[in-house]
Structures are given as C-alpha cells and as structure tokens.
Amino acid sequence: MDLQESEKIIKVDTLILGGGISGVFIGVEFLQKGLHDFLILEKEELSGGLCRSFKIGNLYYDAGAHALHKKAIESSEKLQKIIDINELYCQKRNASVFIFERFIPHPLQLHLFYAPLWVRFKCFMSYLVRPRIASNDLLNWLQTKFGKQVCKYFLFPYNEKVWKTNLKNISVNWVSRVSSGSSKFLKGLFFSGDQNYNSNEYVCYPNIGGFENLFLGSIEKIHDNLVVNSEVTNIDLDKKEATTRDGKTYQYRKLVSTLPVDLLVKKLITKKNDEIITLVDQLEKVSTCLVTFLTTKHSTSLQRIYVPDKKYLVQRVIINSNSSQYLKKQNESIFSLEISYKDKNDLPSEIAILCNCKELLKDLDMIREDNDVKEYKIDFFEYMYPTQTINLENIILEVKRYLEDYDCYTIGRFGSWNYANIDGILNEVTELINQKF
Ligand SMILES: Cc1cc2nc3c(=O)[nH]c(=O)nc-3n(C[C@H](O)[C@H](O)[C@H](O)COP(=O)(O)OP(=O)(O)OC[C@H]3O[C@@H](n4cnc5c(N)ncnc54)[C@H](O)[C@@H]3O)c2cc1C
To answer: Cys staple from 83: which of 50, 214, 226, 400, with CB 3.0 to 4.6 Å?
Structure first.
C-alpha cells in the first residue's frame, strides 16, 4: 500500500508500544484521567497479548493456565472496574500432582498424607534435619523450608522442568507464590484434607468464552486509540520517532513500551548502547510449547495437573473444560499441555512431542486410546515466563533509568521482566501513570 506523505507522519503526545493487557490498562486509565492524545501500536490483528484466547470446536483455551484469583478481585476496586465481572464463574481451586502413580492434591509439600508411607517417613525425617540457613536462591530456600526429600520428589524436578535453569540462579523474590509454613507442612503430613492454597483458594474465569473475555470491554473502550497490525520496527530515541512495518512514522513526546525490553534495546532502538545491551543479555526467559487436545468428554473435576516426572515433556496439564460452567457443559473436553523450552532446537520433533503428550494423557486416564483425540493444535510462545534471576532487579533498574532519560518508560510482563499476574500489572500501570503523567 502506497501512503500519501501526510499519512506517513503521525504526531501524538504519548505513544504506547504493545496492545497486551499492560497497553490496554494504560489506555483505559488515560481515558479515565481525561487524557485522549495517545495511540497504542499492536503488531497482531487483535490486542490482548498473553491474555488472548483461542478456540477449538466449541471450546476455548488460553496462552497457558489463566484464571483470576478471587482475592485479587475482591481487594482491588480498580480491577473490579476494569474487568467484566458480571459474567465471572468462581470456584474452589482443584489441582493435583501426578506422582507415585497417583493424584495428590497440589502442592505436594502440604499434602504428603496422600503419599506412600515410606515417602512420608523420609520427608518427615528430612524436614526435621532441614538446613536452617538464610538463602536468597530458590534451590536453598526450598530445602530450608521443606527439607531435602520433598524437594527431591517434587519441588526440584517440577521447577527444573518449568524454568530450565539451575535453581541456584533463581531468586526468591516471587516465592510468596510457593505455599509454605511449618504448621501446614506438618498438618498435611499427618492429616488428610485439602490445605488452603495461599490466598489463591478460589479462582475465577469468564462464563462466556475464554480468559480474554474479561478484557473485551476494556479493549472496546480504547478502540479509537488502538492501531492493530502495526509492528514497530525502529525507534529513534533522540528524534522521538517510532516507525512501523507499514512505513508510518509516529512522533511522540513520551513513549511507553510494554514490549520485551531485550527486544526494545537490542533490535528496535537505533542508537545502540553497549552497556545496556550487556545488561539485557543477562535476562533469562522461558518459552512454551502448548499442545492442546480436543477429546471425547472426560469427567475429571480437576482444573490443573502438575507433572514432575521427567519422562514426560509436559510440566502442567490445564483442563480448561473445567474453567467455567459453559465449558463444563460441552460434549467434548479440552486439555492444554505446557512444555517449557529455552531454545526451540532443543525440542523433539512435533510427532515425538505429540506421542509423549498422548502417553501422558493415557497414564492420567484422560484418554483411553488415540481415537479419543478429535483435534489438536501446537502453539509456540517465545516470551512466556520471565525468569526471576538473582541479579534481575538491578538490571531492570539500570535499564529503566537509561530509557527514562529519553522519556521512554518500559513496563509490563517482559517490559519489567516481572513475573506478575493481572493485578500486579494493573498496579504497575497505575504507579507509572501517577508518577509520570
Ligand atoms: C502461562 C501464563 C499463565 C498466566 N496465568 C495468569 C493467571 O492465572 N492469572 C493472572 O492474573 N495472570 C496470569 N498471567 C499473567 C498475564 O497473562 C500477563 O501478566 C499479562 O498478560 C502480560 O501483559 P503485557 O501486556 O505486559 O504483555 P504481553 O501480553 O506480552 O503484551 C505485549 C504486546 O506487545 C505486542 N508486541 C510485541 N512486539 C511488538 C512490536 N514490535 N510492535 C507492536 N507490538 C508488539 C505483542 O503482540 C503483545 O500484544 C499468566 C501469564 C502466562 C504467560
């Protein structure tokens, strides 16, 4: 398409890169504040980023396991306003670990009562003699909290499968997500029953469609400020100009990027800064191969199954059929299986991945034979989990400082390399707007 000269240059006060949830939340907050002079550039045809949903048959799945924690909604008036809460379906979290050829409620460290007797004995003894040292890496923190044996059976192999790195490199700044507590560990060892899983006991999902339906109302609100199919290919920080693949140039006063910060610094910004590049080169991430199966109806009530055994490629099975009443009522079931990878070349062939996934589904009794699979889809997500490495906070701080000198702010899951849920993203957006706009 040939553009007229006048169409090629667009002036705007604030340019927002990326129409994922961070970009959408910024747009909604700007409008609430009466700020209208902004544009959001999104490379895909639809906005939503990692919160987008996909359909097979009549069923929906998401980019990995998505649900909103009921406590997060209850404690944030802002979140209540920004999401469509009327059609939410909330239910008790129901997740298990597949281990010792049985299902044990997740997390294993709080439900050892259901493990074989010899495992419980070993875990109890190692808990008594667990190391008592302060530690700021995940490997030592887990052993200090729970003892070596339960780490050996579950916490280490599972986390190694997810993070694909030495657990000694991972910091503990996110471990409030890992259920802990001495009394809970001991209670779970000696008594049956479901242990309250942190604050995430109840989870919510839209009753219509997939996870993305929570945000369709917000996306609609920013419709006039959103430019889709608009991939940013170049940013000149000195001139304050961003160029898109379709040949347009956007001149801005302030820039907010929600794109992966390594991509921003290494590929998009014209003037390269070697020191900053060296910093972002230290950032680690995990990509995901998501294998989704549409199958004959299965009656499990589980929503998630955690799989530490390394003979299976998959670390987590998401039974999205159980996420809402609508999905539960359908005549077929949908399962998404998450496989982490660092480098796509490390993955086996698609046929080998499929065979391994089907073997797992059979062992989990979720399909009986290959014919139970009606359809399948394999998706690859390059930016999925920002690894919380020990030196991460300092790196991000330095990079943000550098960019801010050019009125450029980087935020969001991979903009801040932040392992955050939706409520965390919303807090970050609010903080940025309060401080800089
Ligand atoms: C597996 C998984 C499970 C999760 N589970 C939950 C959960 O249960 N509950 C919860 O609350 N949160 C959950 N989250 C977190 C939540 O999904 C993310 O925090 C949130 O979606 C991040 O939004 P974002 O806008 O920061 O990033 P993204 O969604 O990555 O958005 C970035 C956007 O930038 C666009 N883009 C990239 N490059 C360019 C370019 N060059 N030009 C223009 N646009 C570009 C992308 O297309 C994308 O739309 C989960 C996340 C993952 C990955």
So the answer is: 214
